[in-house]
Design brief:
By secondary structure, this protein is an alpha+beta fold. It has helices spanning 10-13, 17-26, 33-40, 44-56, 75-105, and strands at residues 31-32, 60-65, 68-73.
Length: 116
Amino acid sequence: MARATTNSDVFNAVAEPDRRAILDFLGGEERAVGDVVRALRLSQPSVSKHLRVLREVDLVRARRDGRRILYRTHAEAIRPMHEWAGTFERYWANQLRRIKERAESKPRPRSPKQGD
């Protein structure tokens, strides 16, 4: 089966670590490209390319403020990924519960008595 292009599939778009870092950085507020460049220590052309991909899959929105373009995450577009990943969160929580139960059910080695 052919893989979807990066600019048409949300999961492919966020597979790239720098794009995930950009989404994390934009999570709280709108930021200009220069802010992203400085904070993440990436080149300006690289940040612009990543933001373009994120915009094409609608994970990032942009608005013009004078000469600057400000970017922010589009939370509603991220929701399906969050819900999908939640299925794995339940799996790992169950696994951790089973490990804890197993560890607590094993008899503990007794320490030698003093004076023996």
